[in-house]
Amino acid sequence: MLTLVAVVGGVSFLLVVVGGGRPVLLISQIVYAVFTAGFQAVGMTLLGRLLKTGAAGGASLYTAAVQVGSAAGVLAPLAVSGYSPAIFTIAAGFCAVSCLLLVLAPTGRRAGGRTGRWRDRSAAGAATPSR
Q1: What count of other Cβ atoms lies within 10 Å of the Cβ of residue 89?
Q2: Which residues contact 78 (CB under 8 A, 6 or more apart)?
Q3: Nearest-angstrom CA–CA distance, 113 and 45
């Protein structure tokens, strides 16, 4: 699911790069809204599964990552002389790299699967140490 979200994000950014005019910008923003909603829904859940602190830690890490990304998104165009929509190629590249990493990730680690010492071995589903 997260791979699909990364693809949608890449499409949104590429529309800005290759398109022109208000209709393409409007479509790009609609696709971007789907991307951000999917990223929020899936991202926080997966981070919560990966961290020992659970959902609260996942939400905190997600919020921190989004804030850092937002700051970079505001500052990056200022560092480029002759700003143009081509700057969004960088964002599309990030989405492509994310998609590639998600596709290449081992199945056990994908979707927040439990790895390591703690396995779900009880009838009730509680995590117990594996032996």
Answers
A1: 15
A2: none
A3: 12
